[in-house]
Amino acid sequence: MKELVEILARSLVDQPDQVKVSVVEQEKSMVIELRVAPEDMGKVIGKQGRIAKAIRTLVKAAAIKQRKRVTVEIV
Amino acid sequence: MKVVEKNGKTVEAAVDAALQELQVGADRVTIEVLDEPSKGLFGILGGKPALVRVTVKESKSDQAVELLNQILKAMTVEAEVNVEEDNEQIVINLEGKQLGLLIGRRGETLNSLQYLLNLGVNKNAEDRKKVILDVEGYRRKREDTLMHLAMKLADKAKRRGRSVILEPMNPQERRIIHTTLHGREDIYTFSEGEEPFRKIVIAPRK
């Protein structure tokens, strides 16, 4: 799950080496925190959060298989 | 990435030899001239051939497939990837088992994946190419469903003499409905609301 967010974020930003993803795991849920370079924030959020929404939709689909509730936060 | 280095009497001759070996056209490579040819004394002594390095550029569809494969692997989804590329767009179709996961409710997941692929492949690119992603012909089936729905709801609007409002759809899907009903004399269609909640209204003509 972490890997998926990393791949997506790296493909979108100008500074892929600045992409940092960390995971806070709980019993039934999981919070994925995505950090990117300040200049790249817009590239992972998008107009009206459209890109962020697409990332969350994909992660949610992947999470179905693992029966976990996953939230993606851009921090 | 494929790279070859070739000698030749002139730069052109060396490039031609390299293209011959790589079996690609000149538009798909980058060329570096490593050594300019020199004639030497009287054109006989100490002459030096041209040396070029020719590199095959990764095509857009290669990039798209590479990114898609990484994403699918991270999602632990196995699928066969088929690609067709022309001058304007790259059409990717996925075949496999349990791909419903990739489609999602009303194609939501599929549209998200397609959107992210488009952004990833066209990032900072001058020559943008649209990526169209489909899973087991889902989009074509959805198109049939929408056309059918459009006709049914148009009849309903006419029968009741009242407007029928559809659920929110993305621009591509709205376009299918507008196009389907375009020729009809008894009703007309328009969209209202703001993206991403824009929806179609089918209204009877008085």
pLDDT under 50 segments of chain A (min length 5)?
none
Order of helices and strands of chain A: HEEHHE
Largest sheet strand order of chain B: 1-3-2
CATH class of the largest domain in chain B: Alpha Beta
Main sheet record of chain B: 3 strands, antiparallel
Structural class of chain B: alpha+beta
Structural class of chain A: alpha+beta
| Oligomer category | heterodimer
Rg of chain B, alpha carbons: 27 Å
Q: Tell me the fraction of residues in β-strands of chain A, as a range.
A: 25-35%
Instruction: State the domain count of chain B.
Output: 3
Total helix count of chain B? 6
Distance from first to last alpha carbon of chain B: 64 Å
Helix content of chain A: 40-55%
Q: Measured on Cα atoms, how large is the radius of gyration of chain A?
A: 12 Å
Topology (elements, then pairings):
The complex is a heterodimer of chains A (75) and B (206).
Chain A: H1 2-12, E1 20-25, E2 29-35, H2 41-45, H3 50-66, E3 69-74
Parallel strand pairs in A: 2-3
Antiparallel strand pairs in A: 1-2
Chain B: E1 3-8, H1 11-22, E2 29-35, E3 50-56, H2 60-74, E4 80-85, E5 89-95, H3 100-103, H4 108-121, E6 130-135, H5 138-160, E7 164-165, H6 171-181, E8 187-192, E9 199-204
Helix pairs in contact in B: 2-4, 5-6
Structural write-up:
The complex is a heterodimer of chains A (75) and B (206). Chain A is of the alpha+beta class and 75 residues long. In chain A, 44% of the residues lie in helices and 25% in strands. Chain A is built from three helices and three strands, in the order H-E-E-H-H-E. Chain A has helices at 2-12, 41-45, 50-66, and strands spanning 20-25, 29-35, 69-74. Chain A has a three-stranded mixed beta sheet. In chain A, a hairpin with a 3-residue loop joins strand 1 (20-25) and strand 2. In chain B, a hairpin with a 3-residue loop joins strand 4 (80-85) and strand 5 (89-95). The mean pLDDT of chain B is 90. Chain B folds into three domains: 3-56, 2-Layer Sandwich (Defensin A-like), CATH 3.30.30; 60-136, 2-Layer Sandwich (GMP Synthetase, Chain A, domain 3); 141-204, R3H-like domain (Ribosomal Protein S8, Chain: A, domain 1, 2-Layer Sandwich). In chain B, helix 5 (138-160) packs across helix 6 (171-181). Chain B has 206 residues and is α+β, with helices and mostly antiparallel strands. Chain B starts with a strand and ends with a strand. A three-stranded antiparallel beta sheet of chain B has the order 1-3-2, covered by helices on one side. At the A-B interface, helix 1 and helix 3 of A face helix 2 and helix 4 of B.
